[in-house]
Design a protein that fits this description.
The chain is of the alpha/beta class and 207 residues long. Helix content is 32%, strand content 24%.
Length: 207
C-alpha cells in the first residue's frame, strides 16, 4: 500500500514499558492512516504486528536509521544512546528526548513533565498521570483511553486454567534492571502467596 509519512518510535525497553506504549500506535494510525511506522527496540518479540518495520537495537539497525529520513521521530527513552540517536537521525519533527551537552534533555515543553518526574522524587510522587497519558503528551497528543495492543499473545497456547470462581490476585514479582532496589525478596512473595491462598484467593505470578 502507498504511504505518505514515515514515523520512527525509539523505545528500547523495558518490556513492560514497551507494552504500555502500544496505545500510541492506535493514535498514530488514526492521525496518519497511511503512515509507515518504524520501531527501534531491544525486545522486538513484543512489538505488535501493526508496526511496519521492527528493528532490533544493533549496529546494523543504527546504520539504516542514520541513512533514512523520517517525517516524525518519537524518542521515548532517556538512555544516552537513545538520545544520541535522536540527534543523529534526520527527521522533520522530533519529540521526546534528545542529547544536550552529553546529557538527556527534553526536546520541547511537551516532554518537560516526563523529564522532571524522572529527576525529582517529590514531583514523581505528586504525579497523577498514567504512563500512557505522559507518553501521549510527549508526542503532542491527548490520551483518550486507547487500549494496549497485545496481538502477539493471543494464540491458543495461552489458555488460562485458573479457577474463575475464586478472585485472582496478580503478583508482579519482577522489575527492570534499572530498578533493582525495588525488588522484594522472594521469601516475602512466597509468604504473601500462601496467605492469599489460605483466605480463598488464587495468586497468579506475573512477569
Amino acid at each position: 500500500d502507498p504511504t505518505d509519512k514515515k514515523i520512527l518510535i525509539i523505545k528500547l525497553g523495558a518490556t513492560g514499558d514497551i507494552i504500555r506504549t502500544t496505545p500510541l500506535l492506535r493514535k498514530l494510525k488514526e492521525v496518519y492512516p497511511r503512515g509507515e511506522i518504524w520501531w527501534l527496540t531491544q525486545t522486538p518479540e513484543v512489538i505488535p504486528s501493526v508496526v511496519d518495520v521492527i528493528l532490533q537495537f544493533s549496529p546494523q539497525s543504527i546504520t539504516t536509521l542514520t541513512q533514512t529520513h523520517f517525517n516524525f521521530l518519537y524518542n521515548l527513552d532517556k538512555e544516552r544512546e537513545a538520545c544520541a540517536l535522536t540527534n543523529a537521525i534526520s527527521a522533520d519533527l522530533k519529540k521526546g528526548f534528545f542529547l544536550r551537552d552529553a546529557k538527556c534533555a527534553p526536546i520541547d515543553k511537551d516532554a518537560e513533565n516526563k523529564f522532571l518526574t524522572g529527576v525529582f522524587d517529590d514531583l514523581n510522587k505528586a504525579n497523577t498521570k498514567s504512563y500512557p497519558q505522559e507518553i501521549f503528551e510527549m508526542c503532542g497528543f491527548t490520551f483518550s483511553g486507547e487500549r494496549y495492543i497485545l496481538d502477539n499473545f493471543a494464540s491458543k497456547e495461552y489458555k488460562w486454567t485458573l479457577n474463575k470462581k475464586k478472585k485472582i490476585v496478580g503478583l508482579n514479582t519482577g522489575c527492570g534492571g534499572r530498578w533493582t532496589s525495588r525488588l522484594w525478596p522472594e521469601k516475602h512473595w512466597v509468604q504473601l502467596a500462601r496467605r492469599l491462598k489460605k483466605v480463598g484467593y488464587s495468586p497468579l505470578l506475573l512477569g
